[in-house]
Predict the 3D structure of the following.
Amino acid sequence: MKIQLQGFVLWSIGLSLFFACNAQEQSTDYNTNSPNSQVDSSAPPIPVVTIPIGLQKLIAAYPQQHFKANATCLIWSDGDTMVYQDSINNIDKTFQMLLNQPDLEDQLSMPYPKGLDYPIPSRNNDPGRIRVEAFFLKMYGQNKEAVRKNLVEIDFLGSKLLVTKINSIDKKLAQIAKELSEYPELKKYLENVGGSFNWRKIAGTDRLSTHSFGMTIDINVKYSNYWRWAVEDKMEDGKRAITYKNKIPLKIVQIFEQNGFIWGGKWYHYDTMHFEYRPELLIEL
Ligand SMILES: [Zn+2]
């Protein structure tokens, strides 16, 4: 009985989210309410829909996706919808829940510190590591073969890389390479690129790495730091106390950020070779 009841509750929540999306979609759309001076007082009031700031950021950050939104959902160009906020607020989710069961609101919930001046990340402050896998699968391809269809080879400062052409990421990486080539002192960090497209899970997890989507590159491993490699870090209360490390010059970070890529060097679980296309975390409205 208890199991049946739980099933019913989950079914009800799912159903209500489905209706929440579709009911709003019929009545309103993004930017559709214009002031009307000839107001008919007998007519029902036009609902004012507030698009959550996170959805506004997704729309502005991915213009090639032609996203729309209403108060509760992201609407894809083919009409598919994704709920912005599930039944649990991001502040009520544990860090593992944020990583494993995020919604789009959670994906945008940790502010990414853009620019040269950034704080040493506090515990579990990983802006960009919270990702709705379904969002990236829908954007870049539902499986390895589907992603592959959108890959092209580019020359990145002498390394041949397979990257996606979705969101013009191939062109953006070519532009990054052009800008970086003007700084010969940075060359050693950028040769022997550690990786681009690679359909795989993140080490130690059941989640897909963003390398699976062809929108992420790792620069030279030789000058990189990754929290899992720092076995010398001390244990505190049964957990490893991660001590921040970085050898990557911030000029490289700045050029990637200016072209829509975030850097794994700004995470508590740092990964300083890692750059991933996440313009929604960099855009300012
Ligand atoms: Zn990486």
Remarks:
- DSSP finds nine helices and ten strands in the chain.
- Residues 18-28+49-84 form one domain.
- Confidence is low (pLDDT under 50) at residues 1-19, 23-37.
- Residues 73 and 83 are 4 Å apart (CA to CA).
